[in-house]
Amino acid sequence: MKKLLSLPPNLVSSFHELEEVSREEWFCTSDPIGARLGSGGGTVWLLESCRQAEKSTLALGDWIGREKRILLHAAGQSRRLPAYAPSGKVLTPVPVFRWARGQKLSQNLLSLQLPLYEQIMQKAPDSLHTLIASGDVYIRNEQPLAEIPEADVVCYGLWADPSQAVNHGVFLSRRDSPEVLDCMLQKPSLEELADWMSTHFFLMDIGVWLLSDKAVRLLLKKSAGEEGGILDYDLYGQFGLSLGVDPKIKDKDFEDLTVAILPLGGGEFYHFGTNRELISSTLAIQNRINDQRLIMHRKVKPHPAMFVQNAEVHYTLTADNSELWIENSYVGDRWKLHDKHLITGVPANDWKLTVPSGICIDVVPLGDAAWVARPYGYHDLFKGSLFDPTTLFLGQPVRAWAEVRGITLADCPDIQQAALFPVCDSIEELGEVMRWMISEPHRTEGKAIWERASKLSANALTDQANLVRLISQRKAFQRNGWPLLAKNHERSVFYQLDLADAASCFVKQEIPLPPPLAPDTPLIKQMSDAMFRARVLKLKGLDYRKEQSDAFRFLQEGMVEALKDKRQTPQLSVFPDQIVWGRSPVRIDLAGGWTDTPPFCLYAGGAVVNLAIELNGQPPLQVYVKPSPTPQIVLRSIDMGQMEIVSTWEELLDYSRIGSPFSIPKAALSLAGFAPAFSTEVFGSLEEQLRHLGCGIEITLLAAIPAGSGLGTSSILAATVLGALSDFCGLGWDRQEIGNRTLILEQLLTTGGGWQDPYGGLLHGLKLLQTGEGFQQTPLVRWLPDYLFTDTTYQPCHLLYYTGITRTAKDILAEIVQGMFLNSQEHLSLLNEMKNHAQEMYKTIQSGDFHQYGQLVGKTWAQNKQLDQGTNPPEVEQIIRRIHDYCLGYKLPGAGGGGYLYMVAKDPEAATHIRNILTREAPNANARFVEMNLSTRGLQVSRS
Question: How far apart are CA 820 and CA 535, in angstroms?
């Protein structure tokens, strides 16, 4: 999906280098110099420039339909936010959110806003190829995106307070037909909105528009000037006002355009257009969450509206320094600050500088070594003539500023074009002239520097700034800040950052690893620290296995710690001739898989929709436990044809040995109290404990299902063993306790895995399982109706096919879990999408929409592949290609890579075609269909 950006001219040539992005994926240009095109004409210019850059022979009207594109308009002059005019507001650095994991220290407005636009385009119908958005806003959504209808124009809006809506465009729909756009208004007054609200709903335009090719062609027509030129045409003020049933601008060309207005569910809108908004929007984002349990660091700032990043500050900040923004700057201990400051671009210095309230300091690098001093007022608009008494500079009329300093300014019709900012050859000169300009008007040294220096206007600064030097300085401040962030981790965001990105920065910038954490540091932080160190060592080509192993050990300790007060006293609770028989179904995960996996679920909670099923009419996992006259443990596996006798604790505790066929029952016996660490009583040996019990134990396992099935076999078998042992030993565990202990058992085995597998089999039927954060992962269960699975119309459409392709989940699991340890932004953003997708699946099943259900199964598969491409090997893809056209959706359950293929056929006839295709030409000798039916019992334990 290509991204097209309209940027300030000076940024275009260096954008790809500065952002380290591909020219194939990113295209950028600027509006023609001196031309005023408006957002509509600018859109046409951006598309045409990209078409020409690609050297396409197609006409623009045909070329637009070749692929999906995201267009961002970010080329404004930034008069009201001068600090980021040279680099464009779209690259404004944004502080890491105090409540979020997986963000990058280098994040900017572009990196924050783009994921939502990409999600929208991925969800959009194939007829919508063009998304247009603004570069100076950040839009969040907390709910899954609604279905995007087929329409020529789709606009997103927010339910907003009228006082906010008056500063933006507004979509109006009649109350009796809210899905139909009546008309659009631009910046209506409160009185106008009040008149409309008696008969209409309104949504505030957030500037995210999707256009069909037909709509883009109409935009081309309206923007077309003479001889192929482009007119000044506004997308929102002209094109938008021509849309709807009763548009404000009547134009027959628009009558055939269909329009859809979509509320952005759980949407939030933050504007970064002015100095004040830079701080107020950042503050509003940071304060989205005030629950201290969800804020990972423990720093308390002197004032909440105070933001320091990529900077070195030796001045002691206090509550008086409110509305403060310091970025890419050095502030020494001889500075004196007040409030309402933006301080940007200031190099290391030894200045004695007093910055009055409402004054901002900006330094812009020029050429190879020069600097430009650009102070300005917090409320300056950079608009108006120099002779206009209302035109402000440094918070006062520009003529008054000049008079008090004994200088005369030539008239200029636009202060944005006035050459006010001196070019300095040294940092010392820079400090002197800055003092004269902002607070010491009678300082002769500063006046002399200003008078002899060449000077630039705000526009010229934007055009001539050395952006490579500007960004290099920012990176240098970041490099110096990394060790401090790590050292002060209790009061910093370090361990909530994307540590994969942090590790890369440490290696590239040759930053030494921070000191080891104290032993009493919380285990979740120790886990992340160990994996961070492992990643740094790995990137350096050094041995990282110990540190990586430590991360998993800390995870295991945290999970097992939950059992420290739950030691067991196993007692024989059956007759000598009785057999305890446990049997369980397997599960198919329908949505949200992986979100149940530690460590992600420990700090974010998980949400999974899954289905308990029997195969060929039987629970496929069975366990038999019975007393034995000999004081030893006998383990048998019917399906593997193996047996092992355990006589000592040493033999029992080797459950983590790779390749052991009886790891599961050994670990289960340990958790049941037959290992010293989990027993309330003290014995000299395992034999002594079994004699005290009154018998030995024989455990026989039967897994009537191939290994690597993807149906949660090993986890559910472990839960079945624990359930049978609970009954045999009188432990009284309920299903929640069995599920919790299964999760811990898997950590003991170092196989990892989440809680959805055991609970998927322990609990019957179809359900949504949800957990909160913390080591105690006990899911809340919401049962779902089984209509889509049992009704005779739909039951034949659910197909389960064993592919005959085996795989081991552990390799796939390990890589993804490492990403969780590291707060990898790539992994966490997708996992959060998966959680939302589980909610979407839950609502769809509740509504009984079979078609939508099948499509959501397909979305689950797409998410799994995005998380790890190894989930879909070529052999599986060959099978899928043969049946794709007959399915609404399909997926490999579990981690993927092989095992079973679950398919949702479009209808019973399509199901018959699928059966015929895969039966007639099976991919291998073991491939076959298996009959599946909904389990109505879950785990069952009974006695002979």
Answer: 13
